[in-house]
Structure formats: structure tokens, C-alpha cells
Amino acid sequence: MHWQASVILVALVTLCLSGVLWSCISAYQVGVGRADSTGPPVEIHFMGYANLKQVGRGLHLRQFARAFVVEDENHKRVAFVSVDAGMMGYGVKREVVKRLQARYGDIYTADNVVISGTHTHSAPGGFLMHLLYDISILGFVPQTFEALVQGCYLSIKRATDNMVDGRIFLSRTTILNVNINRSPTSYLRNPVEERAQYEHDVDKVLTQLRFVDSENTLLGAFNWYAVHPTSMNNTNKLVTSDNMGYASLLLEKEYNTNKVPGKGKFVGAFCSSNLGDVSPNIMGPKCSISGNDCDLLTSKCPQKEGECFASGPGRDMFESTEIIASRLADGALRLLNDNSQETTSREIVGELAYIHQFVDMPNYNGTTYNPLQRKLDKIRGCLPAMGYSFAAGTTDGPGAFSFEQGTITGNAMWNAVRDFIVPPTQEDISCHSPKPILLATGRATFPYEWQPKIVSTQLLKIGDLILAAVPGEFTTMAGRRLRNKISAVAVATGGKDTEVIIAGLSNIYTSYITTPEEYQAQRYEAASTIFGPNTHTIYMDVFEQLTKAMIRGERLPPGPAPPYMNDRMLSMNTGVIFDGHPIGKDFGFVKLQPKKSYQINETVVVTFIAGNPRNNLFPEKTYFAVERKINEERWKVAYTDASWETKFIWERVHLILGFSDIHIHWTIGTNTLPGEYRIRHFGNYKYILGGIFPYEGISNSFLVTED
Ligand SMILES: *[C@@H]1O[C@H](CO)[C@@H](O)[C@H](O)[C@H]1NC(C)=O
Ligand SMILES: *[C@@H]1O[C@H](CO)[C@@H](O)[C@H](O)[C@H]1NC(C)=O
Ligand SMILES: *[C@@H]1O[C@H](CO)[C@@H](O)[C@H](O)[C@H]1NC(C)=O
């Protein structure tokens, strides 16, 4: 740099610091973007509850990827994506980065891109590439994988293409009445002094990043809140982004007026955080028949009292989703509308930085301070394994058979089944203790890895904010400890008072991470803490090193890359064979016409002869449109398949002849304009001799009247 330039820069910095020129201290380029990432809506198993009966039969809400990109004056850049998916898999991230590099060169790498899944349990699976996670989906599903990759890629591309001079603000608000702890007895294992620092046994603070351009026009808002998107339970068969996804749509609707869901410039995202033990089913766990409370320790009901599961606050799962989503969206809107700035809203200022490291968890050797014995303990990770209580499921979705949460002794029959698959060694058993091993996934290699051994750990720093991308589901206290640690290390390393956000289920999926104390209780989350009792302690170590190195501007060794397994994927899912239709009634034929007229709150149902929706996922488009008549020539799209008010259910009518129907439902909401409407369906069919062809159908028109 020339000395003149240095002098000018020093002068500018002085002016900045003295507050005279305060807008220059946060000279960022910012961009936000959104893209459709909806997977196959039918015939593919959902990822989340591992319920073999939960196979897609249609669509309620589309899945979207939402991204922001920030660049500072030094041309350092970070990108963050939140996608309506069960979680993130490394295969997906690797492919997204590959496509970004093909387009932008090495501006984007695995180190400065974070992809975080919202954790909806009602979206198609088969994209994780680790056998245990794809097995309940019957293997790898290329169509799900491609939809997620392309959606994430496009969201970053759009954010990049939209970059403008802008500023970023951080604010927080408390939202009560949307989450409860689903393993409260585990939480109680944490030290009493530690628990005394917090009012609740789950985090109730929503943290928001608001992006504006240089004219202060709102571009987007990203919100983090710790809650499972499991308002829709394991009986749901319609693809949906659940409470978090619907909260995003509600927020976007406020700023993208007159746009159908998923369209419009403003991007509003709700992203996952330390939600490991956090349920949205706030009426709590009850026995399904008796209505009594379940046993607190095992989450079981006495015989004849039914199954134990949690629900609420609505009368059914749709209403519960709507209530939770509305409360989340209202919290975010409160922050956006707060002109008084009385909340803790403040501008984010300072340089960007990022750091990433792969860690071989089973081979991790470290030491940690043991406060009880006042000495350094050697710690190591275990080979991945799942405990008995994993099979018990949770009160958000109970498991099969008679497994109980809190199980710390094995059972001869299940041990025999386990050993038939692959037996754990004595060393595995003592490493994971007190977890009784149900599946020694780390020893299984056939036909490829069952669970990851190498994890991704990553930090993005935007000024005095740090986003910690964690490869799984941290419980409430596990997340709090990590946040406090990173913040303290940042300050001690010379950083400013630093805000830390946990970005959950990022980059690669490794199930749960509990605190060592919670691990002892061996409820579901602990049984699914796959690297054993030291899992969390190792992450505390690793993130400490990452924080120090990032703030000092040092480099760390990249660590061993996860194996490439794309060419070995197993799948028992078959593709579409062919579609047929009854003689004389072509694809798009209306089998069930609407009535002549409807009123508010009634539901219109129309049935078309259809092809298989898997023939074309219509990304960024729709399988149907509810259209309102404007004049003799013009109809306007009022609702699409991504609208809350609509659903489609696909029905196989004749397996051998390949006949199927699509039933389109539209519930007429209170704000619907009266007038003349019709429903149009768009589809593709697969011809028996090969080829996929488009078709279309239009229903009779009908009236919507006010009374
Ligand atoms: C799922 O929710 C429906 C109501 O929408 C309810 O009837 C059903 O019992 C619930 N099932 C489970 C397992 O939670
Ligand atoms: C940790 O120690 C084990 C056993 O001594 C060794 O096999 C392994 O390579 C070590 N891991 C690392 C990352 O150094
Ligand atoms: C429609 O249903 C809502 C909610 O149940 C109710 O509040 C409203 O009064 C109903 N509107 C009409 C016109 O029936």
C-alpha cells in the first residue's frame, strides 16, 4: 500500500471510531436469495421419525433454501444457507460447493459456506449417504439429493447476484409458549449452579440478523430459534416445511405483498439451533387413551393407557403447526417493526473471518480439565454407536417395539440381533458406557459407512458475531456451554464482546450431542450421542481451538476429508415405471368437478386423472394453481401448491395399469376475495414406451361468495 493510502485509511478509521463517519465501519456488501428445493412429494419415505409407514402421498408446503452472502472491504466473504430439510449431509454440501466453484471460481469453498437444515421431519429423505440415515428411506434417492443441491446452490447464486452495499443489525426477543424440554429429567442432571443461571430448561430467545441496503430498505431477516419442527407428527404424509418453514412463509408474506409463497425479493428465514431436546408440542407428553401423564423417566404409559406422545397447542397437527409458526413469525415481525429500537438491536460492525476443520472423532486424543478431581483427564472419542434408547424414539414420535428411554442395560434378544449385524468389541462397550450398544454403526462398513466418523466443524465471523456451525443436534445445555465457551475464548483472544449463534444440523449429520451429565441418563438424545460420553467435551476443545485460530488469523490443518461414497450408493427405491389412464379419459381429465359455489371456510376438492408427480418436481413452479377471474381474457393465480390454504394428495388407482388421481384441496380462508375461480393442474406422465410428456387440466369455474 502507498503511504498516502495508508494515511487516508488511518484518517478514515479515526473518523469511524470517533463516530463522525459511523456508516463506514460496517461497509459490507450483502445479498439474500431463495430457491425451491422441494424433493419428490410421493412414494419416498420422510426423513426424521424413521417411521416406515411415513411415505409421501402429496404436498402441503414446498421446501425452500434461503441464503445470505456478506463480503467486507477486504473481500473476505461468507455464505450461509438454511434449507427446509431434515438436516444437512456432506455429500450435498460438497456438490453445492462444486457447482458454486464452476460458476464463481474459488470465491466459495467448503470453508466459507455453511449449509444448515431446519430439521423438518416431513420432507423426503435419502440424501445423507450414510446407511443408517438412509435405511428407513430404503436407500439413497437421487431425486431428493438433486433437489436439495440445486436449491442450495441457486439460493447462494441469487444472493450473490443481488449483492449491494448494505448493513446488518442484530436483535433479540423472547418468545414463550412455543417450546418445551422433551427430556426434562436429563436436563436436571446438569449441575444446579449452572441451571440456576437460566430461567427455563430450553432457550426461549429468538436471535435475528436484519439485512438492509444503503437506503435502509429491508432485504431480509434470518432468525434462529431452538425448537424441533415436529408439530406435524409421524402420521403426516404430506411434504411440509413444518412450523419453521411456515413461519418463514408468514414472515415473507408481510413484505412480499401480492406474491405467491416462495416469490418476491424479501427473504425471511427461520433457522435451526440447539434444538436437541426441544419440542414444539407444548401440551406435553400424554398417554393417548387415558390422557394421563406418561412416566417421566421412561416416557412410557401403563398397558391399556395407550402410547405416550406429546402434541398441541392446536386441536390437530395442522392447527398446532399454524399456532407455533404464527408465534415465531410474530416475534420476528416485532423486531422488524420496532422503530423505537428499544430492543437490544445493534449494528454489526467489523471484519469477516471464517475457519473450518474436519475432525476424526473416534481418533481424537485430547485432555480436558476435570473440575471434580481437579486434574487433566485424557479424553477420546468412540467409534459411532447407537444405544438402546435410540430405538425408543421420543415423545414427538415414539419408536417401534418396546424400547424405553433411559435404558442402561441391554437385553439378550436384541443383543443377538445386534451381533448378527456387527458385534461391538469390548473396547466399544466400555468406551460408550453407560450406553448399552444397540447398533455398533462405527464397525459396520457394508456396503459403505453407516454413520460418519469424520465431522465438519466451522465458524463464520461477521464483525462481533460468530456463527458456530455444528454437525448435529446440540441439546439446550450443550448449546449454552458451547456459546459461552466460544464467546469467552473470543474475548480472551482479543476479540470484542462477541455474540454467538449456534447454527444446528450444519454440513454433515451425526445425530445428537448431549452434555456428559445428560449422557449418563441415556434418554433418546444421549443414546444418539454417537461418539460416546466425551462427544461434547471434544467439541468444546475443537471449537476453542477454532475460535483462537480464527481471531488470531492463524491457519489450522484442514483435517481428513470425509470419504467419497457417491459411486457406491445403494437404493431399493424404484423409479416411475409408466403412467396410464382409463380409455377415453386422458391425463388432466377432471374426475371430480367443483360445486357451483362455495363460502368462506369451505374446502373445494377437485380430482384430476394424473401422472406420477415424481416425473417432474416442478421446481420454482407448481403442480396446480387456484386462479381467479379478472376479466373475460384474464385469470390470475391466487394460490399455488406452496400455499398454506392448499394441499394435494396423490392416489394410486391401479398399480398394474399405472392409473393415478390427484386430489387438490383448497380451503377458502377468511381473506379470500369473492369472485369466480377455477383450478388448473399441471403434470407430466411417463409413456409406457418411454419418454416423459406434459399435460394440463382445468376444472369448471365456481363462485366464492361471502354468505
Ligand atoms: C398425530 O396428530 C393427529 C391429529 O392431527 C392425531 O389424531 C394423532 O393421534 C397424532 N399421532 C401421533 C402419533 O402423534
Ligand atoms: C490417538 O491415539 C490413538 C491411540 O494411541 C492413535 O491410534 C491415533 O492415531 C491418535 N489420533 C490422532 C488424531 O493423533
Ligand atoms: C371461519 O372460521 C373461523 C375459524 O374457525 C371463524 O373465526 C370465522 O368466523 C369463520 N368465518 C365464517 C364466515 O364462517
Automatic annotation (TrEMBL):
<dbReference type="Pfam" id="PF04734">
    <property type="entry name" value="Ceramidase_alk"/>
</dbReference>
<comment type="similarity">
    <text>Belongs to the neutral ceramidase family.</text>
</comment>
<feature type="binding site">
    <location>
        <position position="119"/>
    </location>
    <ligand>
        <name>Zn(2+)</name>
    </ligand>
</feature>
<feature type="binding site">
    <location>
        <position position="473"/>
    </location>
    <ligand>
        <name>Zn(2+)</name>
    </ligand>
</feature>
<feature type="binding site">
    <location>
        <position position="512"/>
    </location>
    <ligand>
        <name>Zn(2+)</name>
    </ligand>
</feature>
<feature type="domain" description="Neutral/alkaline non-lysosomal ceramidase C-terminal">
    <location>
        <begin position="543"/>
        <end position="704"/>
    </location>
</feature>
<feature type="signal peptide">
    <location>
        <begin position="1"/>
        <end position="18"/>
    </location>
</feature>
<protein>
    <recommendedName>
        <fullName>Neutral ceramidase</fullName>
        <ecNumber>3.5.1.23</ecNumber>
    </recommendedName>
</protein>
<keyword id="KW-0746">Sphingolipid metabolism</keyword>
<dbReference type="Pfam" id="PF17048">
    <property type="entry name" value="Ceramidse_alk_C"/>
</dbReference>
<keyword id="KW-0378">Hydrolase</keyword>
<keyword id="KW-0732">Signal</keyword>
<keyword id="KW-0862">Zinc</keyword>
<dbReference type="InterPro" id="IPR006823">
    <property type="entry name" value="Ceramidase_alk"/>
</dbReference>
<keyword id="KW-0443">Lipid metabolism</keyword>
<feature type="active site" description="Nucleophile">
    <location>
        <position position="279"/>
    </location>
</feature>
<dbReference type="InterPro" id="IPR031331">
    <property type="entry name" value="NEUT/ALK_ceramidase_C"/>
</dbReference>
<dbReference type="InterPro" id="IPR038445">
    <property type="entry name" value="NCDase_C_sf"/>
</dbReference>
<dbReference type="InterPro" id="IPR031329">
    <property type="entry name" value="NEUT/ALK_ceramidase_N"/>
</dbReference>
<feature type="domain" description="Neutral/alkaline non-lysosomal ceramidase N-terminal">
    <location>
        <begin position="28"/>
        <end position="540"/>
    </location>
</feature>
<keyword id="KW-0479">Metal-binding</keyword>
<feature type="binding site">
    <location>
        <position position="228"/>
    </location>
    <ligand>
        <name>Zn(2+)</name>
    </ligand>
</feature>
